[in-house]
Amino acid sequence: MTMLCDxxxxxxxxxxxHNASIKPYHYFQAGQIGIVxxxxxxxxxxxxxxxxxxxxxxxxxxxxxxxxxxxxYDMLLVYGVLREITKGDDAEEYNNKYEQLYVEYQAISNGYxxxxxxxRW
Length: 121
Description:
3-stranded antiparallel beta sheet; single chain; two-stranded antiparallel ribbon; alpha+beta; 2 helices
């Protein structure tokens, strides 16, 4: 979660328990989000909440569900499976394609930048 403070968004760390702290943080309690210290004024678009869904293991009967991969890299999952179940020369070909896609996928989804959202209100 980030909060607008002095015209700049500041990341508020998550703490599991509502207890006294010198630094600002947020917590979850009884299905609600708490912010410490409580903001003194209401600011339009002053709080941003980011959500990362929990993806369950993909099973054969769940092939129509979300894999969690960027849609541009869904073949990464396919080549990963193919390299595991294939033997011989084909396995090397699938492994090479998998490794290439994996490096590209890591390059676009690695680091803090994936959480950085620049918005113009």
